[in-house]
Protein backbone atom coordinates (compact mmCIF):
# COMPACT_ATOMS: atom_id res chain seq x y z
CA UNK A 1 0.00 0.00 0.00
CA UNK A 2 1.43 3.38 -0.98
CA UNK A 3 1.88 5.96 1.72
CA UNK A 4 -0.42 8.96 1.24
CA UNK A 5 0.96 11.41 3.78
CA UNK A 6 1.77 12.09 7.40
CA UNK A 7 -1.10 12.69 9.81
CA UNK A 8 -0.59 14.10 13.31
CA UNK A 9 -3.15 12.85 15.81
CA UNK A 10 -3.88 13.32 19.52
CA UNK A 11 -5.67 10.77 21.67
CA UNK A 12 -6.74 10.86 25.33
CA UNK A 13 -7.65 8.20 27.88
CA UNK A 14 -10.08 9.74 30.35
CA UNK A 15 -10.28 8.06 33.76
CA UNK A 16 -13.14 7.76 36.22
CA UNK A 17 -13.31 5.31 39.14
CA UNK A 18 -10.63 3.02 37.68
CA UNK A 19 -12.27 2.90 34.26
CA UNK A 20 -11.41 4.55 30.96
CA UNK A 21 -13.84 6.12 28.47
CA UNK A 22 -14.09 4.48 25.05
CA UNK A 23 -16.06 5.95 22.15
CA UNK A 24 -17.57 4.11 19.18
CA UNK A 25 -16.88 6.05 16.01
CA UNK A 26 -19.25 6.65 13.12
CA UNK A 27 -16.75 7.89 10.54
CA UNK A 28 -16.18 6.44 7.05
CA UNK A 29 -12.62 5.45 8.01
CA UNK A 30 -13.70 3.86 11.31
CA UNK A 31 -17.35 2.78 11.15
CA UNK A 32 -18.46 1.11 14.42
CA UNK A 33 -14.91 1.01 15.81
CA UNK A 34 -14.02 1.65 19.46
CA UNK A 35 -11.33 4.21 20.16
CA UNK A 36 -10.21 6.77 22.70
CA UNK A 37 -11.40 10.33 22.09
CA UNK A 38 -9.01 11.51 19.40
CA UNK A 39 -8.51 13.53 16.26
CA UNK A 40 -6.14 15.38 14.00
CA UNK A 41 -3.98 18.25 15.13
CA UNK A 42 -4.96 21.32 13.13
CA UNK A 43 -2.33 23.37 11.32
CA UNK A 44 -0.41 25.55 13.78
CA UNK A 45 -2.22 24.08 16.78
CA UNK A 46 -0.46 23.25 20.05
CA UNK A 47 -0.48 19.48 20.75
CA UNK A 48 -1.82 19.81 24.32
CA UNK A 49 -4.52 22.24 23.22
CA UNK A 50 -5.51 19.87 20.38
CA UNK A 51 -5.90 16.98 22.83
CA UNK A 52 -8.20 18.99 25.12
CA UNK A 53 -10.17 20.32 22.12
CA UNK A 54 -10.75 16.85 20.67
CA UNK A 55 -12.00 15.52 24.01
CA UNK A 56 -14.41 18.46 24.34
CA UNK A 57 -15.69 18.05 20.77
CA UNK A 58 -16.22 14.29 21.02
CA UNK A 59 -17.40 13.89 24.61
CA UNK A 60 -18.47 17.27 26.02
CA UNK A 61 -15.92 16.92 28.84
CA UNK A 62 -13.29 19.47 29.83
CA UNK A 63 -10.12 17.63 30.83
CA UNK A 64 -6.80 18.26 32.49
CA UNK A 65 -4.05 16.29 30.79
CA UNK A 66 -2.16 14.46 33.51
CA UNK A 67 0.40 12.24 31.77
CA UNK A 68 1.35 10.75 28.41
CA UNK A 69 1.87 7.10 27.49
CA UNK A 70 4.01 8.13 24.55
CA UNK A 71 4.12 8.69 20.83
CA UNK A 72 2.97 5.97 18.43
CA UNK A 73 3.87 5.70 14.75
CA UNK A 74 1.91 3.42 12.38
CA UNK A 75 0.38 3.17 8.91
CA UNK A 76 -3.41 3.64 8.92
CA UNK A 77 -5.88 1.61 6.88
CA UNK A 78 -6.03 4.60 4.50
CA UNK A 79 -2.28 4.33 3.88
CA UNK A 80 -1.26 7.39 5.90
CA UNK A 81 1.70 7.44 8.24
CA UNK A 82 0.15 8.39 11.58
CA UNK A 83 2.09 9.98 14.43
CA UNK A 84 -0.20 9.71 17.45
CA UNK A 85 0.42 11.54 20.73
CA UNK A 86 -1.48 9.78 23.51
CA UNK A 87 -2.35 11.41 26.84
CA UNK A 88 -4.24 10.55 29.99
CA UNK A 89 -6.63 13.00 31.54
CA UNK A 90 -9.14 13.69 34.27
CA UNK A 91 -12.51 15.38 33.84
CA UNK A 92 -12.54 18.93 35.22
CA UNK A 93 -15.90 20.07 33.85
CA UNK A 94 -18.58 19.67 31.24
CA UNK A 95 -20.89 16.69 30.91
CA UNK A 96 -21.03 13.67 28.65
CA UNK A 97 -22.56 14.80 25.36
CA UNK A 98 -21.61 12.74 22.33
CA UNK A 99 -22.20 13.97 18.78
CA UNK A 100 -24.22 11.18 17.22
CA UNK A 101 -23.12 12.06 13.69
CA UNK A 102 -19.47 11.24 14.55
CA UNK A 103 -19.75 9.15 17.73
CA UNK A 104 -22.54 6.58 18.08
CA UNK A 105 -21.82 5.16 21.52
CA UNK A 106 -19.51 5.39 24.51
CA UNK A 107 -18.81 3.31 27.58
CA UNK A 108 -16.57 3.21 30.62
CA UNK A 109 -14.28 0.17 30.46
CA UNK A 110 -12.08 -1.42 33.12
CA UNK A 111 -8.50 -0.79 32.01
CA UNK A 112 -7.57 -4.47 32.13
CA UNK A 113 -10.45 -5.24 29.71
CA UNK A 114 -8.94 -3.04 26.98
CA UNK A 115 -6.62 -5.81 25.87
CA UNK A 116 -9.57 -8.25 25.63
CA UNK A 117 -11.40 -6.36 22.85
CA UNK A 118 -11.57 -8.24 19.55
CA UNK A 119 -9.19 -6.59 17.06
CA UNK A 120 -12.07 -6.11 14.60
CA UNK A 121 -13.90 -3.96 17.19
CA UNK A 122 -11.04 -1.47 17.57
CA UNK A 123 -9.75 1.32 15.37
CA UNK A 124 -6.06 0.58 14.77
CA UNK A 125 -6.21 -2.34 17.22
CA UNK A 126 -2.44 -2.79 17.59
CA UNK A 127 -2.01 0.78 18.81
CA UNK A 128 -5.09 0.70 21.08
CA UNK A 129 -3.84 -2.50 22.72
CA UNK A 130 -0.32 -1.08 23.07
CA UNK A 131 -1.80 1.98 24.81
CA UNK A 132 -4.00 -0.32 26.92
CA UNK A 133 -0.93 -2.22 28.10
CA UNK A 134 0.73 1.08 29.05
CA UNK A 135 -2.38 2.07 31.01
CA UNK A 136 -2.56 -1.25 32.86
CA UNK A 137 1.19 -1.20 33.62
CA UNK A 138 1.05 2.50 34.55
CA UNK A 139 3.78 3.35 32.06
CA UNK A 140 3.25 7.10 32.20
CA UNK A 141 5.45 10.09 31.45
CA UNK A 142 5.13 13.74 32.38
CA UNK A 143 3.27 15.97 29.92
CA UNK A 144 6.04 18.49 30.58
CA UNK A 145 8.04 16.80 27.81
CA UNK A 146 5.72 18.70 25.43
CA UNK A 147 6.67 22.35 25.35
CA UNK A 148 3.56 24.42 24.74
CA UNK A 149 3.51 27.09 22.06
CA UNK A 150 3.76 30.56 23.50
CA UNK A 151 0.51 32.46 23.36
CA UNK A 152 -1.76 29.39 23.26
From TrEMBL:
All copies of domain Nudix hydrolase, residue ranges: 5-135
Source organism of the structure: Peribacillus simplex
Leader sequence segment: none
Superkingdom field: Bacteria
Keyword Glycoprotein (UniProt): no
Alphabetic keyword roster: Hydrolase
Stated name of the protein: Mutator protein
One Pfam family this sequence matches: NUDIX
Family that this chain belongs to: Belongs to the Nudix hydrolase family.
An example molecular function term from Gene Ontology annotations: 8-oxo-dGDP phosphatase activity
Amino acid sequence: MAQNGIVLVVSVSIFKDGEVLMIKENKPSAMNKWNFPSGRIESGEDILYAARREVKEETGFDVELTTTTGIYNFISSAGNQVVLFHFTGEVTGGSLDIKEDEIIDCKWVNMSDLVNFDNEELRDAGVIKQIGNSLVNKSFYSVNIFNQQLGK
